[in-house]
Structure formats: structure tokens, C-alpha cells
């Protein structure tokens, strides 16, 4: 079993004139075998949390720690964190011309293997075919350049394809449902669910409860203003859908502005 | 460089003797001698914002012919149905031209055989229509000391499906400059692509002068690509020019991945109405090498289109200057000339520049330019690294993406892969020292 712990995490970003604190003390512990969902209004730091765990240089940890299996990962570069078992399905995946999807996937798999034990072409293609068919993707997608000219839905599917090929211990899914129609949402959910098991954990970031009908979480956390303000089981998400974030805020007596500031 | 007191008469006598012993036709020997005369007064070509005056490009003023060891060409890829020309030093190793093309009048042969066997074509076109020895000291040197090369003639209406490949291998196991010439004549309505591979074998310090001149007749359609991979002891001058007649289409896709200083000069002259040229160049520089590249398009005819796209990557302490020169001549109404010059700096110690130079003497035209000197895209790098790919490989993949628009243009997948491999190797070497 692997464990991911976030302890009293404070994170700032530098803006033009000043430094702004986004995370103000986040605590979270998850194990493989569990699916956690983080919900919350715009601008409360959900994406910041996932980017900070992954190691995006734009986010500065000012206090607290992130531990993977008891070891602090904050000093590690992004690629090392990934090889240790973390994966972030991004909201806005980069496009890279000249590098085919297949080539990229092989490089990512081989990065986890010793130089004298790289994956064979046959084994790679077999695994690729299996996952393509699970995600209803055409073989042609793998010969296209990485995310280049992909539609929003294709990009999301491609993130999940990578997830299936790489098989990390923990997958952070940042708004994987945004911009997906209902069919694509089902396909993406099927992909994530196929990994469920003792060796896989996921932290799902979403605005909407809808995704959680397909990927049923074990734990739901609600974030507001840089903190987790409430945790519960899957029913919490349903309650939120009914009452909105404002209802919860008032119930908890929080003084938090919920104006959508698009951050 | 040439000292002021070179004994030109002695040089002429020696060149004349060597050329006659080589069995060259009288007209060509005369041209060599005229070029030596002209050299004395001509200046080096002008290259804006770039200094190459101290390079050892013309230290050797001798003409020698010797056999090279054919085994230096061993290991070249050989595909079925390949149309190819292989030359090591001055020695032609292979000419593979299918009979049906020869029957249609296609000529593929070494340049000196062409002088003897096809004087009607070569005397008229060799450095007469497209380039000229009187342009500058280096073009005169080319004509005076020419010692290698290839001639391709494609008659009217002939379409060649498979690209024609020329492997021109510099023999630097001996002390001797490579002065090589590719002369291509594309007659009306002909259609083909040509791929040049430049390599060096051996460790002697030698200059390489590689000229390409292409005459693209009306309605012809020609694609020229080159993988330039000259060695670390080779200072080179790569001079390439195409003249386009009415409605001709001619494209360059050139990868300059040499290991020593390179002066590149690429020109498309759009003479006939409606001619169109896409001129794409990529360059990668490492170590302390310096590359200066002029990419010039000249719109002379009405409704001509000429676009430049250049992309360069700099590592270590190298220097790379791209000049994109768009020249629209008075009377070329309806001309269109766009250019894009971009360089990517992978090191704080490198020096790169991308200069768009527009010289426009006509009102009714569309012209534009974009230039940038930048760093590797951090978002792309982060994305690749977040999948566990280490920083160096991630950088190389991002660079490949940056060079993609030119790599795309290379017509044979295996040659495209060769270019990618050469670039990867060079990037890896450069990264280890950064």
C-alpha cells in the first residue's frame, strides 16, 4: 500500500506586484485503494493543490509538507515525483508537434524501467491496443503528434490513455470532466474505474457532482478559500449538488466570498 | 585567407596542368583560369551582422585529383528501387538510375563526366544562368578549384516518383578541400524531389565548398532537401540557389547540423510570373561553433510567392545568426513574401539572432515577418516531465517539436528519421556539456 500525505500545506504564487497565498493549510491523507474527490467553487485552490503535489515551479510552498510513503517529495523535480508514482491528468495538456503520441508513451514507460530492460515493441503495442479499445480511441490517434490539434475531448481521453499506460500509484485528475459530453464522460470514467484496486489511488478534482456518479468516491472533501472545510462520504457530494456551496458555507459559518473569480 | 602576394600566375599554370591531365574540356579549363584571374579583385560575399573573414576557407589553392577509398562509403542505407548517386571525395562510387528513367532522357552523372558527355547542357548552364563566378571571391574559387559534384537533368514532362538521393562524402583522410557542385536542370513540367546528404570521413582539417544550382523551368515542380552533417574539422560554405521560371514551384528543406563553422547562403530567385518557393531551414549549433545563414528570396515576377521559415537551436557557447532576406523587385506586383525566423536558446552562453531584412520596391505586395529569440517552452517541458521523462530527454522532445515544421517537409520517412537522429545526437552531445 502506498500513502500520499499533505500536511498543513501553504502555497503562494507570485503575481505581477505581490505574492498571493492560495493554499492556507491543507491537510489530507490518502492511501492506494481509495478514491478521493475534491470539490469546491472556483478559485479555492483545487488546481493549485494538484499542481503543487506534482511540482509545478509556478507554485511556492511556504509552509507544510507533502509526503509520499513517508518521504518528503518537495525537494524532488517533477520527473522524479512522476517516477515515484504520481500522475497528474492536466486540465490544459500541452501540445507538442513532431513527437508522436506512441513515441511519447513509450518514452514515459521506459523512463520507469532500467536502461537494459526497456519495453519491447510487441509488449508495448499489445498494451496500447488494449487501452485504446477500452477508451474507444482509434489507433490513428497514437500516430498523431502529442495533443496537437486534438479537440478538448480527445485531449482528455489522451490523458486517461497515458494514465492507463503508465499505471501510477496515485492519479491526480484535474477537472477531467470539463468540456466532455456525456458519452466521453462515461468513457473516461470507465478508464479510471478499470484501474481501481489495491495498488491505485486517485484524487479527483471537480466542480460538479456528475462525474462522481460514474467514479464513485470513497471520500469527498470540500475546499473553500485554500482549506479543506469538510470531508465526508459520497453523499456529501450529492448534498452539495442540491444545496450549493453557499449552503455549506453558511452551515459552517465561514466568511468566504464565493464570487467566481476564474482562478 | 589568401595573402596579398599570392603568385596567381603560378597557380594558374598548376591548375591548367592538373585540369588538362584530368581530361577536362577546353572550355572548362578556360573558365577555371578566368575565375582565378577574377578572384584577385573580388571581395568576399556580404553577410549582414556576421563576420567570417578569418575562416580558413581558401587556404588551399591547388587542384589535385586522387582516388578515394570506396570503403569510406560503406554502411550507407540501400533501399530497393533507390535512385542514388554516391561520391567519396572525387571518386564516384555508385550511380543507381533505373533504366526507364534513363530511357526518358534523365541524366544522373558526376559533374566532370557531364562536362565531357553533355557539353551542350553544361557549358551553357554551369555557373552561367543561376550563379556566376563573378559574384564574389568564393564563387570564383568554386569555379577555379572545382573537384567534385553531380549533374542531374530531368527532361520535359518527366515525373519521378521516388526521391533522388545524392550522398556527397568529404574525404578528409587526406589534406584536400571539398569543392563540390550540384547542378540540376528541371525542364518544363518536370516533377521530382532531390535529397542531398553531406558527410565527412576522416580527421584532416579541410574546407568544404558545396554549391547547388537549380534551374526550375516553367511549371516544373522540384523539392530539394539536404541533411548537412559535415565534420568537426570542416569549415564550410554552403551556397545554394534556385531560379524559378513561370509557375514553377521549388522548395528547400535544409537541415544544417554540421560540427564546425558554416556559412550558409540559400536563395530562391522567382523570375517567372506565378512562381512559388518555400524556403525552410533548420540549424543546430553546439560547442564553440558559429553558423551564419542567409536565406534570401527574390520576387521578380508578378504574382510570385516566396516564404521563408527558419528555426535554430543553440547549445553551449555556439553562435547562430539567421538573416531572412525578402527582396521584392519593382514591377513584381501581386507578390507575396512572408518570413518567420526563430531561434531557441538552450544555454546562457550561446549567441543567437534572427534578423528579418525586407527590401521592397513595389507597392502592390503582401509581405510580413515574424522573428523570435526564446527559451524552451516551460509548459511543454513540465508536461513531459510530469510523465516521468527526465529533463534532458524532455528538452530534446520539445526541440524536435520546435523543428517539426521543417522535418515534416522531408519527403522520405527514413531520411526524416536520419535527420532526427543526427539532431538528437548533436543535442545530446551539447547537453552533456551545458
Automatic annotation (TrEMBL), chain A:
The record's annotation in InterPro entries points to: AAA+_ATPase, ABC_transporter-like_ATP-bd, ABC_transporter-like_CS, FeS-cluster_ATPase_SufC, P-loop_NTPase
Q: Name one GO molecular function term.
A: ATP hydrolysis activity
Matching PROSITE patterns, A to Z? ABC_TRANSPORTER_1, ABC_TRANSPORTER_2
Q: Which Pfam families match?
A: ABC_tran
UniProt keyword annotation of ATP-binding present: yes
Keywords for this protein: ATP-binding, Nucleotide-binding
Domain of life per record: Bacteria
Q: Where is the ABC transporter domain?
A: 4-250
Q: Which NCBIfam families match?
A: sufC
Record family assignment: Belongs to the ABC transporter superfamily. Ycf16 family.
Q: What is this protein called?
A: Fe-S cluster assembly ATPase SufC
The record lists the organism as: Secundilactobacillus mixtipabuli
Q: Identify the coding gene.
A: sufC
From TrEMBL, chain B:
Q: Which domain of life is it from?
A: Bacteria
InterPro entries cross-referenced by the UniProt entry? Fe-S_cluster_assembly_SufBD, SUF_FeS_clus_asmbl_SufBD_core, SUF_FeS_clus_asmbl_SufBD_sf, SUF_FeS_clus_asmbl_SufD, SufBD_N
Q: Where is the SUF system FeS cluster assembly SufBD core domain?
A: 176-402
Gene Ontology BP terms: iron-sulfur cluster assembly
Q: Could you tell me which residue ranges the SUF system FeS cluster assembly SufBD N-terminal domain spans?
A: 94-164
What the record says about family reads:
Belongs to the iron-sulfur cluster assembly SufBD family.
- Its name, as the record gives it, is Fe-S cluster assembly protein SufD
Amino acid at each position: 500500500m502506498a500513502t500520499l500525505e499533505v500536511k498543513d500545506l501553504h502555497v503562494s504564487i507570485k503575481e505581477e506586484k505581490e505574492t498571493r497565498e492560495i493554499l492556507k493549510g491543507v491537510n489530507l491523507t490518502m492511501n492506494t485503494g481509495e478514491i478521493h474527490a475534491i470539490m469546491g467553487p472556483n478559485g479555492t485552490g483545487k488546481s493549485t493543490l494538484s499542481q503543487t503535489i506534482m511540482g509545478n515551479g509556478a507554485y511556492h510552498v511556504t509552509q507544510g509538507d507533502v509526503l509520499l510513503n513517508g518521504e518528503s517529495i518537495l525537494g524532488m523535480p517533477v520527473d522524479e515525483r512522476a517516477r515515484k508514482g504520481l500522475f497528474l491528468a492536466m486540465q490544459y495538456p500541452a501540445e507538442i508537434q513532431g513527437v508522436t503520441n506512441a513515441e511519447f508513451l513509450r518514452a514515459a514507460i521506459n523512463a520507469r524501467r532500467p536502461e537494459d530492460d526497456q519495453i519491447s515493441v510487441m509488449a508495448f503495442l499489445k498494451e496500447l491496443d488494449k487501452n485504446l479499445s477500452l477508451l474507444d480511441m482509434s489507433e490513428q490517434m497514437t500516430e498523431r503528434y502529442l495533443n496537437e490539434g486534438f479537440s478538448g475531448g480527445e485531449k482528455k481521453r489522451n490523458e486517461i490513455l497515458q494514465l492507463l499506460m503508465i499505471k501510477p500509484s496515485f492519479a491526480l485528475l484535474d477537472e477531467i470532466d470539463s468540456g466532455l459530453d456525456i458519452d466521453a464522460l462515461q468513457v473516461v470514467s470507465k478508464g479510471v474505474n478499470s484501474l481501481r484496486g489495491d495498488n491505485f489511488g486517485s484524487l479527483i478534482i471537480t466542480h460538479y457532482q456528475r462525474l462522481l456518479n460514474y467514479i464513485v468516491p470513497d471520500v469527498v472533501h470540500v475546499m473553500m478559500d485554500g482549506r479543506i472545510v469538510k470531508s465526508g462520504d459520497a453523499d456529501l457530494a450529492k448534498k452539495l449538488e442540491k444545496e450549493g456551496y453557499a449552503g455549506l458555507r453558511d452551515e459552517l459559518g465561514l466568511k468566504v466570498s464565493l464570487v467566481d473569480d476564474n482562478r | 585567407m589568401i595573402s596579398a602576394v599570392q603568385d596567381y600566375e603560378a597557380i594558374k599554370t598548376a591548375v591548367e596542368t592538373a585540369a588538362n591531365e584530368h581530361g577536362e574540356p577546353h572550355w572548362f579549363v578556360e573558365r577555371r583560369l578566368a575565375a582565378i584571374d577574377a578572384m584577385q579583385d573580388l571581395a568576399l560575399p556580404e553577410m549582414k551582422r556576421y563576420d567570417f573573414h578569418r575562416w580558413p576557407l581558401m587556404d588551399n589553392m591547388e587542384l589535385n585529383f586522387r582516388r578515394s577509398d570506396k570503403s569510406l562509403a560503406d554502411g550507407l542505407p540501400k533501399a530497393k528501387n533507390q535512385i542514388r548517386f554516391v561520391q567519396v571525395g572525387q571518386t564516384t562510387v555508385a550511380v543507381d538510375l533505373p533504366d526507364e528513367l534513363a530511357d526518358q532522357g534523365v541524366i544522373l552523372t558526376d559533374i566532370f563526366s557531364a562536362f565531357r558527355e553533355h557539353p551542350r547542357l553544361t557549358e551553357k548552364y554551369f555557373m552561367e544562368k543561376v550563379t556566376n563566378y563573378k559574384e564574389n571571391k568564393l564563387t570564383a574559387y568554386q569555379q577555379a578549384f572545382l573537384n567534385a559534384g553531380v549533374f542531374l537533368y530531368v527532361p520535359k514532362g518527366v515525373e519521378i516518383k521516388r526521391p533522388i538521393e545524392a550522398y556527397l562524402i568529404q574525404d578528409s583522410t587526406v589534406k584536400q578541400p571539398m569543392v563540390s557542385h550540384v547542378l540540376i536542370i528541371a525542364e518544363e513540367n518536370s516533377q521530382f524531389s532531390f535529397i542531398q546528404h553531406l558527410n565527412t570521413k576522416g580527421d584532416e582539417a579541410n574546407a568544404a565548398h558545396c554549391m547547388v544550382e537549380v534551374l526550375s523551368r516553367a511549371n516544373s515542380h522540384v523539392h530539394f532537401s539536404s541533411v548537412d552533417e559535415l565534420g568537426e574539422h570542416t569549415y564550410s560554405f554552403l551556397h545554394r540557389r534556385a531560379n524559378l521560371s513561370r509557375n514553377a514551384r521549388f522548395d528547400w528543406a535544409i537541415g544544417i547540423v554540421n560540427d564546425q563553422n558554416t556559412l550558409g547562403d540559400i536563395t530562391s530567385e522567382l523570375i517567372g510570373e506565378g512562381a512559388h518557393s518555400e524556403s525552410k531551414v533548420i540549424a543546430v549549433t553546439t560547442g564553440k561553433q558559429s553558423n551564419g545563414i542567409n536565406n534570401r528570396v527574390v520576387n521578380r515576377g508578378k504574382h510570385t510567392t516566396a516564404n521563408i521559415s527558419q528555426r535554430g537551436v543553440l547549445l553551449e557557447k555556439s553562435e547562430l545568426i539567421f538573416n531572412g532576406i525578402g527582396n521584392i523587385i519593382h514591377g513584381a506586383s501581386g507578390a507575396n513574401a512572408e518570413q518567420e525566423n526563430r531561434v531557441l536558446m538552450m544555454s546562457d552562453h550561446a549567441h543567437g539572432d534572427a534578423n528579418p531584412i525586407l527590401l521592397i520596391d513595389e507597392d502592390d505586395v503582401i509581405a510580413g515577418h515574424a522573428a523570435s529569440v526564446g527559451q524552451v517552452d516551460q509548459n511543454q517541458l513540465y508536461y513531459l516531465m510530469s510523465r516521468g521523462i527526465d529533463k534532458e530527454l524532455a528538452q530534446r522532445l520539445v526541440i524536435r517539436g520546435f523543428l517539426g515544421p521543417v522535418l515534416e517537409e522531408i519527403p522520405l520517412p527514413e531520411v526524416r528519421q536520419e535527420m532526427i537522429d543526427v539532431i538528437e545526437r548533436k543535442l545530446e552531445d551539447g547537453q552533456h556539456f551545458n
